[in-house]
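Model it.
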Amino acid sequence: MTNREPRHQLDEKAPAKEPLGKSLKKIFLWTTGVFVVLVVIGSIVGANKAPIPVRAATPAAAPVVSNSVTNPNPARASANPALPPGAEQVTVTRVVDGDTFEVGARRIRVLGIDSCEADTAGGRDATAAAQSSVGSPERIVTLTREPGVDKDRYGRELRYVALAYRSTPSLAPQDFGKYMVGAYHTGVYQGRNDASDTVVAELREEDQYSGRDCSSRPGPTGDVDVDVDNDGDRNMPDGALTGGYCARKWWC
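Modeled.
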């Protein structure tokens, strides 16, 4: 005969089963808690990260259209493209004396000639002649270098000087040095002359006085042409009374 425990004892040892609804509720609560925790962690991490800047689209730059032409060698640029190499057109800002003038901060000494000093009688006339020519706003002044020659020991730029009228620029320019040596107050430079031999020879041909006389104006030589016609001026020289043109006579 087999010994069996009473049934009421077996029922006490078996675990009681949990209702299904209660188990589902626990699962739901657990899942919801995990989700909330993950959301909170994600918010904290996102707050600590610097925002990534969003670059605005940059519009493409419009192409720049220029009407100017770039000079490939500006050091040789000239106001007049027809000028020969080594020549430049300038504006004289101050006349110092008959053979020296200024162009801004530059001081120019005319090659090949030598005028009287400004404080002499001849020098005053030479300065006046230079003022009325290179210093005139009606003149176009062109400077040209002698190859291999630039400045003298005083720092003055040695240049040939040519003059033209602005009203008639098509006419051939006049050499300023030749113009000046035609008067008594300017002669050909003596000693070491940095002008070319050809220029020096041409200047000597124009030097009517074979040098310069700075003390006073030269008087008339030879016969004096006097107006002796009966025109009511009592045989006075041309223009003496009327102030008219006197044909470049010595007394004018």
